[in-house]
Amino acid sequence: MEVGVLKRADGSSYVEWGNNKVFASVYGPKEVIPRFLARNDKAILRCKYNMTPFSVEDRKRPGPDRRSIEIGKVTSGALEPAILVEDYPNSMIEIAIEIMQADAGTRCAGITAATLALVDAGIPMRDLVAACAAGKSNDEIVLDLCKEEDNSGQADVPIAIMPRSDDVTLLQMDGILTEDEVEEALKLAMSGCKKIYEMQKKALKVKYGG
Ligand code: ADP
Fold it and tell me: Could you tell me the distance, in angstroms and rounded to a whole number, from the CA of residue 129 to the centre of ligand 1?
């Protein structure tokens, strides 16, 4: 994890997570365009998640698709509780997540990277947001599925948390799990998030000391 990697963004980061390679950038708080989207009680977040055509094995058709729009939306929802949006009415914070290379778990890597970019942009936050997925593959509950495990996997449970309070800001589930398995997967994903949190703090210390 590296913080402050893009000169012209207000904040930026680069995260390598297994075979995932992700850039995140933040612009703002700035003027809302179009104006009618502005809110007088808080800043709005606009989060774009994009996978480059060369990020996956078969070339991905460029431009937005249903999946990337959904991930942009859930990422925004995962980050907003941690940001003091109420301090910036009538403004907008733009977050761009670029997946340069994808394996699996890119939404978690994206949320993790976007958090670092927000801090780098000087946006006041209640806590960092750390994300990690657990899942089920070969009848076993495992942490952070890779591509093969994800493709042949039976379930995928990405979560994001604010680690100081353990508040969950993202919880999704693909596939089928029993109640006990959900418990186990959540516990495992939570422990993954805590590890990611430590790495985020370390990366921020490298840039900002302390
Ligand atoms: P996440 O990356 O958060 O796990 P998904 O479970 O939707 O999200 O995707 C798993 C993986 O499938 C991605 O990381 C990527 O490697 C691959 N993938 C997703 N969309 C495409 C696509 N349009 N073409 C090729 N591979 C894709």
Answer: 22
* Span 132-157, pLDDT tens digits: 999 999 999 999 999 999 888 899 99
Domain residue ranges of the chain, discontinuous segments joined by +: 2-208
Q: How far apart are CA 53 and CA 24, in angstroms?
A: 17
- Which protein residue has the closest C-alpha to ligand 1 atom 9? 104
Contact 58, 49 (CB under 8 A): no
CATH 3.30.230.70 at 2-208, yes or no: yes
User: Which of 17, 19, 55, 56 for a ligand 1 pocket mutation test, highest count of atoms within 8 Å of Cβ?
Assistant: 56
pLDDT digits (tens, 9 = 90+) for 91-133: 999 999 999 999 999 999 999 999 999 999 999 999 999 999 9
Give the H/E segment covering residue 50.
strand 44-51
Strand partners, 24: 13, 97
- For residue 34, what are its two tokens? 């179009």
Q: Are strands 92-101 and 44-51 parallel, antiparallel or unpaired?
A: parallel
